[in-house]
Design a protein that fits this description.
Elements lengths: L1 H8 L6 H12 L5 H14 L3 H12 L15 E5 L7 H11 L4 E5 L9 H5 L11 H11 L1 E5 L6 H12 L6 H14 L4 E8 L8 H17 L3 E8 L7 E2 L1 H12 L5 H17 L6 H13 L2 H12 L4 H5 L9 E6 L9 E6 L1 H13 L13 E4 L6 E2 L4 E7 L2 H11 L3 E5 L2
Parallel strand pairs: 1-4, 2-3, 4-5
Antiparallel strand pairs: 6-9, 7-11, 8-10, 8-12, 9-11
Helix pairs in contact: 1-3, 2-4, 4-9, 4-10, 5-11, 5-12, 5-14, 9-10, 12-13, 16-17
The structure holds uracil (URA).
Organism: Gallibacter intestinalis
Family: Belongs to the thymidine/pyrimidine-nucleoside phosphorylase family.
Protein name: Pyrimidine-nucleoside phosphorylase
């Protein structure tokens, strides 16, 4: 291991055998955290080339269970988002694509920080089961085209261990490590094609468009070398996606979007993402045709019906899907007016920091600060006004749902700093 660390410290390329030994040794406990930490930092400074990244991904994929989806008929398409505030596209794009005939067998995570992950959002529907057995998962995909379950501890074990170490050694923001981490899990899931949504902006891991594009290129290279159709969308995460941030709030907004009456940006992003999934799944010959089919799935009501079927299949309370007012709501509700954030004349909002809204939502109880913490399914923030909207001092610009009064106060304090506006005539 000391030779491997020294080689990378000197900017040299690691051999295939060295990379495979490194992953095996770390998973079986022969390589201690302090040596792996030193290597991660050397990779931070000197990077890895494409061959090294490809082998690292393969070794991490094979460090755990690899799912075989060959007995599911049809083209299986997976999607992955590098994460953002209010990003609920798995809840909308997957049912749209499944309604068009794409097969989606998806594992998702619980969130750490900001709001919960897709699994936390789905669990805000009473009764919804995210830990179903593999046979049931595959049967669901075969029969209705869609199933989403929580990330198994057995998938890409090395990634889980290395990610935990990266988190505490300031080595998360390393393109080679992010690309191999994400793709090792996607490849282990066994789909035929992968669509990546790489976000950039103040609420995302990648801060600039250029960094997001470079990360996307690396992941596409890994996917294609593995014989998977792989594509990426690059999207802006400067302000939250849609108007809702928080678990049940995001379910409600996803339902509205699937019924065709959600926010404009959610509709556009859903069609864009589902359109590409439909194209990657071989149902459309071009992305434009895929997008047209996606729009049709929404306008015909088939996308919402697919979502409903998916919720019922996994034990969720269908009454809540048919009447979103039955979704859980946090104990304390507060309205934030224009004047509360300093607006004293008619103004136009220029920017809302996604990072600040995400953090405020987490404070409300929608996200975790520690692994394993419970989230409040009904906590979060509803933004009535976003960039470009006109606001009067007495307009309610946001609604905040918090688990208790202290959390509400702290979140309001955080939120009041996140509005950027100019006075207009
Ligand atoms: N998401 C992942 O799964 N891995 C990373 O390294 C970063 C984001």
């Amino acid at each position: 291991m000391t030779d491997i660390i020294a080689k990378k410290k000197n900017g040299e390329k690691l051999s295939e055998q060295q990379i495979r030994d490194l992953i095996d040794g770390y998973v079986n406990g022969d390589i201690p955290d302090y040596q792996m930490s030193a290597l991660l930092m050397a990779i931070y400074f000197n990077g890895m080339d494409e061959d090294e990244i490809y082998i690292l991904t393969d070794a991490m994929k094979n460090s755990g269970e690899v799912i075989d989806l060959t007995d599911i008929k049809g083209n299986k398409v997976d999607k992955h988002s590098s994460g953002g505030v209010g990003d609920k596209l798995s809840l909308t794009a997957c049912p749209v694509a499944a309604a068009a005939g794409v097969k989606i067998a998806k594992m998702s995570g619980r969130g750490l920080g900001f709001t919960g992950g897709t699994i936390d959002k789905l669990e805000s529907v009473p009764g919804f089961r995210t830990d179903i057995p593999m046979d049931e998962f595959k049967a669901n995909v075969n029969e209705i085209g869609l199933s989403i379950i929580s990330q198994s501890e057995e998938i890409a074990k090395a990634d889980k261990m290395i990610y935990a170490l990266r988190d505490v050694t300031s080595t998360v923001d390393v393109p080679a490590l992010i690309a191999s981490s994400i793709m090792s899990k996607k490849l282990a899931m066994g789909s035929d094609a992968v669509l990546l949504d790489v976000k950039y902006g103040d609420g995302a891991l990648m801060k600039t468009k250029e960094d997001a594009e470079n990360l996307a290129k690396l992941m596409i290279m890994i996917g294609e070398k593995n014989g998977k159709r792989t594509d990426a969308l690059i999207s802006d995460m400067d302000q939250p996606l849609g108007n809702c941030v928080g678990n049940s709030l995001e379910i409600a907004e996803a339902i509205k979007t699937l019924k065709g009456n959600g926010p404009e940006d959610m509709f556009k992003s859903t069609v864009e993402m589902a359109g590409r999934m439909i194209y990657l799944g071989g149902i459309a010959e071009t992305v434009a045709e895929g997008e047209r089919i996606a729009e049709e799935m929404i306008s015909s009501g088939r996308a919402f019906e697919k979502f409903r079927e998916f919720i019922i299949r996994q034990g969720g309370d269908v009454n809540v899907i048919d009447d979103i007012s039955l979704l859980p709501v946090a104990a304390v509700k507060r309205e934030i007016k224009g004047k509360d954030v300093g607006i004293i004349d008619k103004s136009q909002i220029r920017h809302i920091s996604a990072l600040a809204v995400g953090t405020a939502s987490q404070i409300c109880g929608a996200g975790r600060t520690k692994k394993g913490e419970k989230v409040d399914p009904g906590a979060g923030i509803l933004l009535n006004k976003k960039a470009g909207d006109t606001v009067e001092p007495d307009d309610a610009i946001a609604l905040l749902y918090a688990s208790d009064e202290d959390k509400a106060q702290e979140a309001i304090y955080k939120l009041t700093n996140c509005w950027d506006y100019i006075k207009i005539k």
